[in-house]
């Protein structure tokens, strides 16, 4: 059942082919002359490689490009239907699965709530959703070359193991082995925040940026650093745990057991808890469910002008700004991208973050650094899974 075309392709082709495919993927539709310029390969070498790639069906000639005088150049791009990939995002409470072509066009997609979070139950759901979505997409199963999986928590991406996923209650779950055994396709597993960073780098705000940080705020808070174009993972795959850095020694207890962690003070969980506490004290809001505050209700209320919801979000944004200023002082990055579900209230969060970061980051570390809100939003993670599985399949 396994599709041998792209895999054998990966094994057979040389480094120059990889390089040409990477440039075409990175730059989009591009002329042969520009490929030669970016790769430092000679024009005859580029002509030979692209001829072979067209013959194999990996790339196609696109519509004519803009002429710089003289004949219009023919542009080359990846053949979106050369093969297809499946992308999965396992978050704290949900499983999303997409079937996509090489151009990130989504052919089928579904998101389900996870009631039983045991590894066996989640994998069973993943396999069922895989078959359902592949069927719905109309893509023949032997054209699916691989699956990119982004999962919450610590991940050893080399071995494809979820080391620790606190919100799922997982420890040492070998996702790669289980998925490969069941589906017989190539598998790539990565932590959700690192996947988000790759999504931003390939398809979003960090396109072409080699040194940047991605900060994801949702139920938890995590960060990922791209240094000189590469994901920095740390020696035990655990870098980026900004959520568990201390912001206030006298702060509330965190899920990790410590007190005053950023995550305990600025995550969506913190927003809901603060909201609930202030509602119980009698503060006015359009939100009526005092005990079980839903984050989506808070965001909706804030976006239609509910003063309490806006105030709670502004206050947590101060802590978030402190966390981001700390990161900027450590890394001196070119760009910080804020993503995750909190983007739904970006117009409230952004001005507060900018003020706090300006106050707290050193002039020299913040100079030249841009702080942007992700325009991919929650899609950045699944797009990152696309980037990761493509890198793996094409050996980029
Ligand atoms: Zn903590």
TrEMBL record:
Top-rank taxon:
Bacteria
SUPFAM superfamilies, alphabetically?
Actin-like ATPase domain (SSF53067), Winged helix' DNA-binding domain (SSF46785)
> What's a single GO BP term from this record?
regulation of DNA-templated transcription
Q: Which residues form a coiled coil?
A: none
Alphabetized GO MF terms: DNA binding; kinase activity
Q: Which UniProt keywords apply?
A: Carbohydrate metabolism, Kinase, Transferase, Xylose metabolism
Q: Which residues form the HTH crp-type domain?
A: 17-77
Family matches, as InterPro entries:
ATPase_NBD, HTH_CRP, ROK, WH-like_DNA-bd_sf, WH_DNA-bd_sf
Gene3D superfamilies, A to Z: 3.30.420.40, Winged helix-like DNA-binding domain superfamily/Winged helix DNA-binding domain
**Family per record:** Belongs to the ROK (NagC/XylR) family.
* Annotated function: Transcriptional repressor of xylose-utilizing enzymes.
Q: What is this protein called?
A: ROK family protein (Putative glucokinase)
Q: Tell me the organism.
A: Caldanaerobius fijiensis DSM 17918
The organism's taxonomy opens as:
Bacteria, Bacillati, Bacillota, Clostridia, Thermoanaerobacterales
């Amino acid at each position: 059942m396994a599709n041998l075309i792209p895999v054998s392709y990966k094994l057979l082709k040389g480094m120059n082919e990889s390089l040409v495919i990477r440039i075409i993927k990175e730059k989009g539709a591009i002329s042969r002359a520009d490929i030669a310029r970016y790769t430092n390969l000679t024009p005859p070498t580029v002509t030979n490689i692209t001829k072979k790639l067209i013959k194999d069906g990996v790339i196609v000639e696109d519509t004519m490009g803009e002429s710089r005088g003289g004949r219009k150049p023919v542009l080359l791009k990846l053949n979106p239907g050369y093969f297809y990939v499946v992308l999965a995002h396992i978050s704290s409470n949900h499983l999303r699965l997409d079937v996509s072509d090489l151009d990130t066009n989504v052919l089928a997609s579904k998101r389900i709530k996870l009631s039983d979070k045991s590894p066996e139950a989640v994998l069973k759901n993943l396999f069922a959703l895989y078959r359902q979505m592949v069927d719905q997409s109309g893509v023949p199963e032997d054209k699916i070359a691989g699956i990119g999986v982004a999962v919450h928590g610590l991940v050893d991406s080399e071995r494809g193991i979820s080391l620790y996923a606190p919100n799922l209650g997982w420890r040492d779950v070998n996702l790669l082995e289980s998925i490969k055994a069941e589906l017989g396709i190539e598998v790539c597993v990565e932590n959700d925040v690192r996947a988000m960073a790759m999504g931003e780098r390939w398809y979003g705000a960090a396109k072409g940026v080699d040194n940047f940080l991605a900060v994801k705020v949702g139920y938890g808070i995590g960060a990922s650093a791209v240094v000189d174009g590469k994901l920095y993972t740390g020696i035990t795959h655990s870098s980026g745990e900004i959520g568990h850095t201390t912001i206030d020694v006298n702060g509330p207890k965190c899920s990790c057991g410590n007190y005053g962690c950023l995550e305990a003070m600025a995550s969506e969980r913190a927003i809901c808890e603060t909201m609930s506490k202030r509602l119980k004290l009698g503060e006015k809001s359009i939100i009526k469910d005092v005990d079980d505050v839903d984050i989506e209700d808070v965001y909706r209320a804030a976006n239609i002008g509910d003063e309490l919801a806006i105030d709670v979000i502004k206050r947590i944004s101060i802590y978030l700004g402190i966390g981001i200023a700390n990161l900027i002082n450590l890394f001196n990055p070119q760009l910080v991208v804020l993503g995750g579900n909190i983007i739904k209230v970006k117009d409230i969060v952004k001005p507060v973050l900018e003020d706090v970061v300006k106050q707290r980051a050193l002039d020299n570390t913040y100079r030249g650094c841009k702080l942007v809100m992700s325009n991919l939003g929650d899609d950045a993670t699944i797009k990152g899974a696309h980037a990761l599985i493509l890198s793996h399949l094409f050996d980029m």
